[in-house]
Amino acid sequence: MKLRPAVLIPATLIPTALATVGLVRTRRTRRTRGTGPQPVRTTSRAARNVEVAALSARVGTATALTRARQVFASAERRISLDEDLQLRTAADVARTLGEMKGALMKIGQMASYLDHGLPEPLRLALTQLQSGAPPMSAELAARTITEELGRPPQDLFLEWDPVPIAAASIGQVHRAITNDGRAVAVKVQYPGVADAIAADLGNADLLFGALGLAFPGLDPDPITAELRTRITEELDYRQEARNQQLFADYYAGHPFIHIPSVLAELSTGRVLTSELVTGSTFAEAVTWDERERDLIGETMFRFVFGSLYRLRAFNGDPHPGNYLFHGDGRVTFLDFGLVRRFSDEEMANFQRMITEMVLNDDLVAFRRAVEDNGLLARGAPVTTAEVGEYFSHFYTFVRRRGRFTWSTDYASATVRQTFNASSPVTRHTTVPASFVLIQRINLGLYALLGQLEATADWRIIAEDIWPWVDRPADTELARREIAWRSRPR
């Protein structure tokens, strides 16, 4: 299952991707103006290209000036100039992507947790985008709620906090208390973000076309089609409400996985109201003791793959701001805008690949499976051993029984392996639509598990999750989940 990603762009390609998008059209365009403060700085495709081109130019100019100053500087001064350049560049990139929001901000979010090979100042600056993007004004948020629900928030709620508790790429979240006393989180979509997303998606063909130069077998059409469909769905909070309630209903009563319920009567296409949950952040959770981090890792693993193989639905947005932690393995999962449901045929394809690679250790049969699924060109001029060597990396943690500790090195190696242009195999691989979101969350999950340094026998946990194996695992969380599965429905 764990094959090439499509929705994400690896962090090592971020500068190239930004420059490519930004320099396509650089003619100046008047910025979109509204009747009030605009949280999305530019919304047209041309204007957003200009923004990125300007960012690339600023970075280039700053780099050139720094190199010139270093010519006559002492060794100590040269190091100081380099550090100053990194800090200023990182801050500029994070600020620009945060103000632009939309799909480009999502790229910055992914870069912050997917690849620890980034310069540390840049990675830390981009980390702010996980939950601390520049918010819209309180007046603009209130206006959006009034337009959507017919009354201002002060009338709709017993209490309303105008200061957001989180701001991300598409909307921001406010605390409130309903008139019947329920504490809720109200997500309000940024005005103009739909146009900004449309502009960014207009560059998707260009972006993946550029990747196709490095990977000749890559067919960008199913990737861009899936990307447009899923991210367009994410803009409709009614769809997100249905997604979230699907997961909330399925996991009702679960001992350690919690999904906030939706208040449909206070939700529309641009406002989503759900149960308010408080807890510790991911940054706090990574400082907890080894037992707690191992339990968190197993819970996240069970949620991702249990949802895929048992609910047949996949929540495709894994960044760290979408989790709240409560101790003893209990985790609340947030943000269900980017969800994909899978057909019987698609699930059978995933099962076949895992069965041949992991359970049967049959590389000949595995190669037939990836060829039949359209991941590898049929009859590609590569040996079956080379196919096995390339793909086996993505199954390392479940191919053998025994304890495996996730690391940031393994997560970064997985990103590099996915885009390993030197491998003869990648020249003949592509990504069908059903695999597009799969790998985005796989790589995101691996990065988070690596930061947790979570340790477990992931093979026996996977065999408990996979319904066609359904072999109970002997772990603390497995016993609790098996009891939950066995309850009367």
Describe the protein in words.
By secondary structure, the chain is of the alpha+beta class. Helix content is 53%, strand content 9%. It has 21 helices and 12 strands. The chain has helices at 14-22, 45-70, 75-100, 102-114, 120-127, 138-149, 153-156, 193-201, 204-214, 220-234, 237-250, 282-285, 290-311, 344-359, 363-372, 384-392, 396-399, 408-418, 436-452, 458-465, 476-485, and strands at 159-160, 166-167, 171-177, 183-189, 257-258, 271-275, 313-315, 323-327, 330-333, 339-341, 404-405, 455-456. The strands form 4 sheets. Strands 1, 2, 3, 4 and 6 form a 5-stranded antiparallel beta sheet that branches. A 3-stranded mixed beta sheet has the order 5-9-8, covered by helices on one side. The longest helix has 26 residues, at 45-70. The protein is globular. The two termini are 30 Å apart. Residues 1-37 have low confidence and may be disordered.
Q: Which class do the helix and strand fractions yield?
A: alpha+beta
User: Please, how many helices?
Assistant: 21
Rounded to the nearest angstrom, the radius of gyration is 23 Å
Report the count of strand segments: 12
- List the quaternary state of the chains: single chain
State the shape.
globular
Helical content (DSSP H or I, runs of 4+): 40-55%
Largest sheet: 5 strands, antiparallel
**Cα end-to-end separation:** 30 Å
**Mean model confidence by pLDDT:** 77
Strand content bin: 5-15%
| Low-confidence residue ranges | 1-37
